[in-house]
């Protein structure tokens, strides 16, 4: 298959698939996954239609069609296939095509999972699908830009996982399905309402491509999901300081906050989230990978910064916080202040992990970092030793992850020896 031009290789692969389809009756196929990107320059919409008509019969359980993102055929998925497989189909995944279901599709009584990625479908057509798939348990709608108003109807009694990602024209989400327990969202803050929020236990709000997600979470999220147990937040820009929380998440035990490439962010303001989550036990913060501190932000450059002059809320205590992990740890004064605040007001703290690296993979090897990131990581280690280490109670399992000598330190200037760097931090 590696011989010939790209076009010739694609044609050979297309011929192989064509032969398989022609020699198979279609009977007995349980799973069909078509990933035709290698054939994108030679395949046609007519060929795709022939393949699907031949393979999708009653008895199929899983159908996934992954079309080429670019230069592929403009393909309208034949909804008549759903009528043929209505009694058996449990999972449907479509990408980069048009999908226009109508009420004529019939009852998809066993359909439990639907994933639509870059699919041309209107909210009315999506409503037709919902009316046919009464047992739907999982729904993912990603980059479906025709949808402006997403309404999840109450008759979807079994739906418990809902994911909505980067639908550019979407303005409103209304969820009436009564058992949604996991909701993941990526996009700008918008109007979201969930009729039975008592069932919602886990929520991810990803605002990486926009601004204000932290502010939105503190001011709007309580009315959407007051019974959350797990909350994951991501933001790339915050235009305002974190406001004082007006409500508290009384059931939230796991909080993860990701700061994506933020500049000049006041990490200490995240105390507002700890105030809003009085029973949280696990707190994870990603300051960025890695966070490069401007000179005026670094606590090491502030001649007035001594352990007795950093910010602290003396009246605030957190009796349930047990484990705290901060990745992308650096010398930013506000991050040191946040860490010291946690240490001074969390009597139940058992574990504190401060990771100054870009992260480690499953084999224990640290990820790639450039010279500036390495130097900032080392400044972060120095700030930890100067301002944090002495405040850690002996009962706390305290770990500091540093750039390793094997991978990172050799990237520094050859004139700077490892012993010189380590000596400054001792």
Automatic annotation (TrEMBL):
Transmembrane domains' residue ranges: none
Gene3D superfamilies named among the record's database cross-references: Ribonuclease Inhibitor
InterPro entries: At1g61320/At1g61330-like, LRR_At1g61320_AtMIF1, LRR_dom_sf
Domain At1g61320/AtMIF1 LRR: 20-404
Name this polypeptide is given: At1g61320/AtMIF1 LRR domain-containing protein
Native organism: Urochloa decumbens
């Amino acid at each position: 298959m590696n011989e010939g031009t790209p076009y010739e290789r694609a044609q050979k692969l297309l011929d192989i698939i064509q032969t398989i389809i022609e020699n198979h009756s279609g009977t007995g196929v349980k799973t069909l996954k078509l990933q035709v990107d290698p054939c994108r320059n030679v395949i046609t919409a007519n060929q795709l239609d022939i393949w699907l008509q031949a393979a999708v019969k009653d008895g199929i359980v899983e159908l996934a069609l992954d079309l080429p993102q670019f230069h592929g055929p403009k393909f309208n998925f034949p909804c008549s296939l759903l009528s043929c497989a209505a009694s058996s189909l449990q999972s449907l995944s479509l990408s980069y095509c048009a999908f226009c279901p109508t009420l004529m599709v019939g009852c998809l009584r066993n359909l439990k999972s639907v994933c639509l990625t870059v699919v041309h479908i209107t909210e009315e057509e999506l409503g037709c699908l919902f009316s046919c798939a009464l047992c739907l348990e999982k729904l993912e709608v990603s980059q479906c830009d025709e949808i402006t108003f997403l309404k999840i109807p109450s008759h979807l009694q079994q739906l418990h996982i809902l994911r909505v990602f980067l639908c550019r024209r979407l303005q409103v989400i209304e969820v009436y399905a009564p058992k949604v327990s996991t909701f993941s969202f990526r996009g700008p803050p918008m109007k979201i309402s969930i009729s039975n929020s008592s069932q919602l236990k886990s929520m991810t709000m990803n605002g990486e491509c926009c601004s204000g997600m932290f502010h939105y979470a503190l001011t709007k999220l309580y009315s959407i999901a007051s019974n959350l147990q797990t909350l994951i937040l991501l933001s790339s820009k915050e235009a305002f300081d974190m406001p004082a929380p007006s409500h508290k998440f009384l059931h939230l035990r796991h909080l993860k906050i990701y700061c994506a490439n933020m500049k000049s962010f006041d990490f200490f303001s995240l105390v507002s989230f700890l105030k809003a989550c009085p029973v949280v036990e696990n707190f994870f913060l990603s300051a960025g990978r890695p966070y490069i501190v401007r000179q005026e932000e670094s606590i090491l450059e502030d001649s007035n910064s001594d352990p007795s002059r950093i910010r602290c809320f003396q009246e605030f205590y957190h009796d349930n916080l047990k484990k705290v992990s901060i990745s992308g740890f650096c010398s930013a004064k506000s991050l040191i202040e946040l860490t010291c605040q946690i240490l001074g007001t969390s009597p139940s703290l058992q574990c504190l992990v401060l990771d100054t690296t870009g992260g480690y993979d499953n084999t224990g090897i640290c990820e790639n970092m450039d010279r500036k990131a390495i130097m900032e990581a080392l400044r972060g280690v120095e700030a930890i030793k100067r301002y944090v280490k002495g405040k850690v109670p002996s009962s706390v399992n305290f770990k500091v992850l540093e750039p390793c000598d094997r991978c990172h330190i050799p990237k520094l200037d050859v004139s700077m020896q490892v012993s010189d760097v380590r000596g400054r931090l001792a």
